[in-house]
UniProtKB/TrEMBL annotation, chain A:
Residues 28-52 are annotated as: Disordered. It comes from Mobilitalea sibirica. CDD domains: PBP1_ABC_LivK_ligand_binding-like. This is ABC transporter substrate-binding protein. InterPro entries: BCAA_transport, Leu-bd, Leu_Ile_Val-bd, Peripla_BP_I.
Length: 399, 295
């Protein structure tokens, strides 16, 4: 009996080790990255005339492991490139001082309770400004803490409406409702009056976009002929699609992430449906997730960033990113990159690194980033244009 | 006519989902029936099987048939190994300890594949290409038919195996009373190993068909179908092989009918509501045998 207990203990311990290893791997990587960044930065610092720059610590919070890991990893990698560029160019000039940027990125697995832990740890480590969170749910979880601490928070990609509620919280990406409204107006321009929606009713991102879309379609004089929902991790959409097939819908709006979109478009094609698809920025990455990209032909979605864009800044970013990480950057990487530049711009404008001054400076800056030329209003929302992307011949093309 | 087509179309959608649930539930139910434990790692063996198929076909470029056989073999060995390492030492422990260990194994498999294959989903196309069958305007996808046939064959072979062969008799004996079976000269350890081998091989087959229907690989892909199949097994009467098939089909049809006619939002609530109702009226499930507890 004792032996059995030992064996059980051993096994449980082993499985715990593996679980924690899964998380640790990336944490250690993150630390190493930071350290290597620091050493590189120090070198560049030595080369320039300002021998000893002070450090400005930007905390990052986002999922580096778990189901949403790809978003957090992209934001972190995009941000790293911006930090490197800025430090290589001599850091950020604040008044008469120069600051070296340091990115301290922590994993929250896209979970609110983990984000709280990460936020507290970052505050203890002397964070000066927060770039986070990457996902909305985690961000809503730390909002009270952020309000209390009064630190500048800039979420690169959290799009839930309530995320900019505190005065010190800003957002770089579009809000969910704004995306829904934009797509509804786009549908009207295309002459679609009867529309169907399939949305994830267990996800704020999806429902937020859907509600605004439905409202805008109605006020544009259109009609929602089918409103079907699903929950996270669903893989079978045949029922919803069969229901839509029985209506006279002219297009299907799918405010969901790329893996859902891949299943939905594939199953729609198998059911012989030829309706055009409309989507939100969560569709970015859908081509890589679809076995046969022919099913995506003609789908249109909204995105702030397209890696195949011909703009010089985008090209240079894509080259650097591909060299460093061996992958094509997505919009999350661009959001991370722009966030760092926005924070740097706020530092320069404020002429101080006090949180109150940084926050006041946010509404006065104008940044020409990868995701467009943007300014921020007092509500913490960005003003920037939208790009529509069409999938043609298995490629993302600007519309 | 259009309405009839729509109703039949939705029924076929239900059968489509149900046939996968049924196939997964077979393995669940069989392992429970013999070893008297709920193997929560069953869903994750489906995931391992799917990744194994991907490795054999895409990374090692093996022919499809060889890859399928290797996948089934790999999962069978994995099942035996898990049983030896994680469950065998707990054979005399209270059921709760085994249940928790099974959950541990489930996490272990998910996180191990997260380490190896990373979190990003991998798209992987179907390896089964069968043309759809068209009756009038109604089209049944080839995969649905293949899944139904495979599930039915697995169920028939499994039932025959358990009831007609010597090894099957040994399994039933072990399920009745391990101690007495051992006294009768049955090798209990080997019999339970065989049970896990067959259960995991079934999970591998389910994984291959699941992947053909829903072509994307994720470390957590086995969790939800695993739970749904567990519900199906309980609905049909856990431990009963034809019951698992019936439970799976019913679950698929109820779920899809609820989605199509009531609301996509409450379909899961309806599915579990039906489960509660069945368990209230017939606690051992639809086809389950009433067991008199000896005190």
């Amino acid at each position: 009996m004792k032996n059995l207990k030992k064996l059980l203990g051993l096994f449980l311990a082993l499985s715990l080790i593996v679980v924690s290893l899964a998380a640790c791997g990336t944490k250690e990587d993150a630390k190493e990255d930071n350290q290597s960044d620091k050493t590189e930065d120090n070198q560049t610092g030595d080369n320039s005339e300002t021998g000893d720059m002070e450090q400005f610590i930007i905390g990052g919070i986002g999922p580096l492991t778990g189901a949403a890991a790809s978003y957090g990893v992209s934001v972190k990698q995009g941000a790293e490139i911006a930090v490197e560029e800025i430090n290589a160019a001599g850091g950020v000039t604040v008044g008469d001082k120069k600051y070296e940027l340091v990115l301290n990125f922590m994993d929250d697995e896209a979970a609110a309770e983990k984000a709280v832990t990460a936020f507290n740890a970052l505050m203890d480590d002397g964070m000066n400004a927060l770039m986070g969170t990457v996902t909305s749910g985690a961000g809503l979880g730390i909002l009270d803490l952020v309000k209390e601490e009064g630190i500048l928070m800039l979420t690169p990609s959290g799009s839930a409406a309530g995320l900019t509620e505190p005065d010190n919280a800003f957002r770089l990406c579009f809000t969910d409702p704004l995306q829904g409204i934009t797509m509804a107006n786009f549908a009207k321009d295309q002459g679609y009056t009867k529309l169907a929606v399939i949305y994830n009713n267990s996800d704020e991102y999806s429902t937020g976009m859907m509600e605004a879309f439905v409202e805008q379609v109605k006020s544009n004089g259109g009609e929602i002929v089918a409103s079907e929902s699903f929950v996270t991790n669903d893989v079978d959409f045949n029922t919803q699609l069969t229901s839509i097939k029985a209506t006279d819908a002219q297009a299907i709006f799918v405010p969901a992430y790329y893996n859902d979109a891949a299943y939905i478009t594939t199953q729609a094609a198998a059911l012989g449906m030829e309706l055009p698809f409309l989507g939100g920025d969560g569709w970015d990455g859908v081509i890589a997730q679809t076995v046969d990209p022919a099913v995506l032909e003609g789908a249109i979605f909204l995105t702030p960033f397209l890696a195949t864009d011909e703009k010089e800044a985008v090209k240079s970013f894509v080259t650097k990113y591909e060299d460093k990480f061996g992958a094509t950057p997505d919009q999350f990487a661009a959001d991370g990159y722009d966030s760092i530049y926005v924070i740097a711009a706020a530092m320069e404008k404020a002429g101080s690194i006090e949180s109150a001054d940084l926050i006041a400076a946010m509404t006065q800056i104008e940044v020409d980033g990868l995701t467009g030329n943007m300014t921020f209003n007092a509500d913490g929302e960005p003003n920037k244009g939208a790009n529509f992307v069409v999938i043609k011949d298995g490629q993302y093309t600007a519309n | 006519m259009k309405l009839v087509e729509y109703i039949i179309g939705q029924l076929i959608n239900g059968l489509n989902a149900g046939s996968i649930y049924a196939l997964i539930a077979l393995g669940y139910s069989m392992v429970y029936g013999i070893a008297k434990m709920i193997n929560f790692a069953h869903g994750d063996i489906i995931m391992v099987g799917s990744y194994a198929l991907y490795v054999f076909i895409v990374l090692m470029k093996m022919p499809v048939i060889v890859a399928i056989l290797l996948t089934i073999g790999f999962c069978a060995i994995l099942g035996i190994t898990i049983e030896r390492i994680a469950y065998k030492p707990l054979r005399k422990a209270p059921p709760l300890a085994v249940l928790i260990t099974a959950i541990g194994v489930s996490f272990f498999l998910q996180n191990a594949s997260l380490l190896i294959f990373k979190a990003n989903p991998i798209p992987f196309g179907t390896i089964i290409k069968v043309d759809a069958v068209n009756i009038g305007n109604i089209s049944i996808s080839g995969l649905t038919i293949v899944t139904l046939v495979v599930t039915f064959i697995c169920m028939a072979i499994l039932t025959l195996f358990i009831n007609k062969t010597k090894a099957g008799s040994a399994m039933r004996a072990v399920s009745e009373d391990k101690g007495a079976a051992q006294l009768m000269g049955i090798n209990v350890n080997r019999t339970i190993s065989l049970t896990f081998a067959i259960g995991s091989a079934l999970a591998a087959i389910a994984g291959i068909l699941f992947l053909s229907q829903y072509p994307s690989l994720k470390p957590t892909m086995g969790a939800l179908p695993g739970i749904k199949a567990f519900v199906a097994a309980v609905l049909g009467g856990i431990g009963n092989v034809p019951g698992a098939m019936l439970g799976g089909m019913l679950l698929g049809i109820i779920e899809n009918t609820a989605k199509a006619y009531i609301s996509t939002e409450v379909s899961d609530a309806i599915v579990f509501g039906v489960l509660i109702l069945v368990l209230l009226l017939k606690p051992s499930g639809l086809l389950g045998k009433k067991r008199i507890e000896k005190v």
